[in-house]
Structure formats: C-alpha cells, structure tokens
Amino acid sequence: MANAPSSSASGIAATIDGRAVSARVIERIAFETRRLTDETGVVPGLAVVLVGDDPASQVYVGAKGRKADELGFVSVQHTLPADTSEEAMLRLVGELNDDPAIHGILVQLPLPAQIDKNRVIEAIRPEKDVDGFHPINVGRLASGAGEAMVPCTPAGCMILLRDTLGDDLGGLEAVVVGRSNLVGKPVAQLLLNENCTVTIAHSRTRDLPAVVRRADIVVAAVGRQEMVRGDWIKPGATVIDVGVNRIPAPEKGEGKTRLVGDVAFAEAAAVASAITPVPGGVGPMTIALLMANTLKAACLSLGRPSPKLG
Amino acid sequence: MANAPSSSASGIAATIDGRAVSARVIERIAFETRRLTDETGVVPGLAVVLVGDDPASQVYVGAKGRKADELGFVSVQHTLPADTSEEAMLRLVGELNDDPAIHGILVQLPLPAQIDKNRVIEAIRPEKDVDGFHPINVGRLASGAGEAMVPCTPAGCMILLRDTLGDDLGGLEAVVVGRSNLVGKPVAQLLLNENCTVTIAHSRTRDLPAVVRRADIVVAAVGRQEMVRGDWIKPGATVIDVGVNRIPAPEKGEGKTRLVGDVAFAEAAAVASAITPVPGGVGPMTIALLMANTLKAACLSLGRPSPKLG
After folding, report:
1. Known CDD domains for this protein (chains A, B) (predicted)?
2. Residue B234 is a catalytic residue
3. Which residues of A touch B200 (CB under 8 A)?
C-alpha cells in the first residue's frame, strides 16, 4: 500500500476498497460454486479466446484464466494466430457454443481487422455471453425482459455503490460521464434500474462541470486522465472512477509510469464523501464479475436461479 | 380545428403540427415505395395480428391497416379469438416469419394473460419486428451495432424535434420524463445518439420540476394528465408531449370527453418556444413511422439501404 495516494489523507472522502469488496465477491462465488457442484456435479466452465499476441490482452487473459483456476472452474484458453480468418473464428465459437462443459465464452477484444467484432459477438449463444455484449443481452438489460448477462465492469460499479451507499439508491442523481457500450451506457441502465435519476454526459455536453456538479453519484468512464476535477464534484458525492490511464512517473525513476483514473483523485477526495482509487477500485471488480457471470451461466443452464453475490 | 386549445394564442410557443409533418413523411414513403416497386417489383407487406376484441385495439389495428392500404402495401390482418393459446400464436408468428410477402409483423398489445408477451415478441424475426420491441432491436439501438428497427413513437418524436430545431441537436439538454420500454427508454437512446445530454426522470425522481427546468428538450411520456406544469418549463424549451389521456369534458355536453397530454398545454405554451398539441402532435407520427419501418424492412430484405424519410 506504499503507493496509496498520500493526498487522500488530507481529504474527507472514504476510499472505496475495490480489492476488499472483490475478495468478498470471490469468496461468495467460491461458496456458491461448491454448492452447485455438490448438488449437481456441474463445474462452471469458462473458455477465453485470444487472437494474436497483443501484450495487454495476454495479461488480461492470463489474469482471467488464473482466477478461474483458483475457483476450480473448468478453464480453457484458445490462442489463435493474428491472421486467423473470421470463418475459423466463427467455427471455434460454434464449437464452444455446442460444448456442454463450457458455460461462458469470452472473446478478448480487440480483434484483428479481418474479423468483424459484431459478427463474432452475435455468434456467441446469448446465455454463454459472459461479457454481456450480445445485442440480446444489451436489449434484455435495457428492457428488463428476461435474464440478461450484464457487462462485468458496470456490474462491478454497482456492487461498489451498494457497498458504499446501501441497497436503496432510489431518487439519487447519477451522472455518467462517457457513453461507451462497454461501460457508460450499461452503467446508466443499471443506475436507472435502481431508480436513480440518470444523466448521460459526454464530449458534446455543453457545461460538463455544471452537469457533474448535480450528481450524488458520479461514474467517470471516458479514458482521459484526471479530466474530472475536484471543483466538478458536489460536496458529499460518491465518485466511481472507471478510467485506467498510464502516465509517466519520473518521480519513480526514469522511464517509469503509474496509473491514474479519469478523476483527479486528490482534488475530488477533498470534496466527495467516497471515491474509488486507481488502481484498486473498479479494476479488481471486473474479473470478479466475469467469474460471477460464468457461475450464473452455469446455474441458468441447469434451470437454477442466478445466485446472489452483491 | 375548432377544438384547438384557445389559450395557445396567448402563449409564445409555436404549435408543432404533427399532422402536417406526418403527411409529409407519408408522401415520402409513398414516393420511396413506388421507387422500390418500380425497381424490384417488390411491394412492402405488413401483417397485423390482433387477439381478442378490445375496442381500442380494434381502432388502432383498423387505422394501421387503412394506412397500409392507402400506400398500396400488401396488408393482412389476423384476428384471433381471446382464448387463443400461446402455441397457436407462436405458430402464426412462425408462418408470418416464413412468408416472403410479409416484411413487417405487428402484434397488437396488450395480449391476453395466457400468452407470454415477451415470448411472442422474441419469436418475431428481428428484421420483421416493425415495432422495434425484440431484444435484438433494443440492443442494436442501444449499442449502435447493426441496423435496428426503431420503435415508432420514439422515432416519430425525433422527426418532430429535427423538424422544429434542425438536424443538429448536439449539446442540447434533453429530459425524458418516464422510462417505459415503449417510449421513455428508446427516446432517450435516440436523443443520446443525436449527442444530447440526456437525463431520464421518473416517479422516483426527487425534484422533478427542477430537473425538467434544466431541459432544452422535454419529452413527457408518463401517462398522467397535465402533470408537467408551465413553471417546470425553461423559457424557450421545445416540448414533446407523448401522453394521451382521456378526461371528462362537461363543457362539450354530458358524458363527453376530450384528450389531453401529459403536459398542461396552455401553461407550457406560454413559456416554451415550441410544443406538440394533444391530439395532433406525436399521435399522427406513430402510424407514419410504422409504415416507414415496413418499407425499411422490405428494403433491407433485398439488401437495399434504408430510405431516408426524416
């Protein structure tokens, strides 16, 4: 913890400990997994597909596989060469769709240019789409009809919010900064489902500081380092920082870098009542929720209810 | 026009004439339909399915069929008894899915209790789902991936807005009051796609008047008569009233009724710069957009681009 932001000490905000919350969620998943296996003999199975040799993707895929192993899941990784054809990719997805030992399929993005990402996502059976990117799952999340697979990072944000603010977020003003399909839009849906008054702000928003200043809950997911400043935050607000930006850190030595979020942490911590740090906030939640979705997919495949983890 | 709200004369708002805009859209559909038929021999086909004998549903279905006839579409209506089984309903949907002369399938809601609405909607082939209710279409609208069928009333609201404010709505503050799957949520998606800063407000919103007062664009879709008052409206705002509420009108004689929207028209017209009346605002757009979706479905089935109608 030597790298914890020292300035948080001078602020009033509680730091939301994503590592601790994520560890609790993982414990709960381990418990529910043992129960599932004891009662049915079924072990959740996750297949991760990686195309090419992008180093960042390899790190992510490795971490996902290790967490699945740790939980005793069936865990398989398919690594395909960078010049894999779309046809070969769709064939593999088809095999995984038909494999009863595999409950969750995750295709690591980005994909090389010759493969149409949307075609691959739509080829995954919606009930095995543990990333929650299939249009059927996006539609179910939006309409509330049927059991949706919810994207991992937004679902993780919601667990952190409930852990901080309690189960009833109804009537709170939430401002989501950023409208990506990965985070901004689904997190807005989830906040709306919790009865927040939800505003989605973005690059075309006219007076972004004023809009953010309305928020009891701020979710920042734009991918711009420390863009959200302290004086944008309403005193007492809860701030969830989804951004992960690597910046030079000459104070750590030549060529060294460090991670910062989309929120200027020290400034915001002096105003907010609670805030997630980067790293150690939202990040650790994402992998935990991927495991939760895989367990959920296994349960739903057996007609069992989705286990409560939040 | 004898029933036009007389108090609008004292206000400053322009009345947005949905009947006139809808007539222009219908003209454009007629033109594009002739072109499609001239070039390909294909005539757009719409099948409307009505279960039971609800009088309001019969009126809607009749109006849809007449408009389709007027445009020279292939138009078929299936009327099933109120005790139709879900199985029989799904069989009919399957037949219509496979019928190459039918490009659009509309199942009039509500359905009787023994039929699961969501199961029926999910059974319609997404490219024939001219209501835009299939989760795939909801998901495509939300994610922007693929060609979505957009629900008719929200799409109609957007045409009225562009007709009033011009093509660039970017940066405007839009507040949608109501979060139904039919109107509130999809219209919020469409406003976001037009780069508005979008807030969704609803029954749990804490200070609804203050939230609405922020809006350059107000879309009211709650189904509560004249709930949005004049002093909720920011001077100069554009107000789209989706509500249709029938109330007693003793001034027209005993037992008479009249239609009012979700907005107190006279009050709001004194503050807004433009406002839709009820009736004659959003209402006429819905049927026009249903025809537009049927034409679009016919074009897409041939691999032709979706015609521009807005």
Report:
1. NAD_bind_m-THF_DH_Cyclohyd
2. no
3. 192, 197-198
Extract the tokens encoding B145.
């991936």
Closest chain B C-alpha to A196 CA, distance in angstroms: 7
Predicted pLDDT of residue A180 = 96
Give me the catalytic one of B67, B108, B216, B296.
Answer: B108
For residue A159, give the amino acid letter.
Answer: I
* Residue limits of CATH 3.40.50.720 in chain B: 151-283
The CATH code belonging to domain B39-127 is: 3.40.50.10860
- Cite the residue boundaries of each domain of chain A with CATH code 3.40.50.10860: 39-127
- Its ipTM equals 0.92
Closest-CA residue of A relative to B201 is A197
Please tell me the distance from the alpha carbon of residue A118 to that of residue A135, in angstroms, as a whole number. 9
A178 appears as a binding residue in the annotation: yes
B residues 106-165 near A, CB within 8 Å? 118, 121-122, 133-140, 142-146
- Answer whether 0.90 is exceeded by the pTM: yes
Q: What is the CATH number of domain B151-283?
A: 3.40.50.720
| Closest chain A C-alpha to B28 CA, distance in angstroms | 30
Beta-bridge partner residues of B80: B51
User: B199 to chain A: which residues are within 8 Å by CB?
Assistant: 197-199
Q: Which two tokens stand for residue B90?
A: 């799904």
Q: Report the alpha-carbon distance of residue B158 to residue B16 in Å, rounded.
A: 12
Q: How far apart are CA B187 and CA B177, in angstroms?
A: 10
> How far is Cα B259 from Cα B280, in angstroms, rounded to an integer?
10
Q: Which amino acid is at B192?
A: L
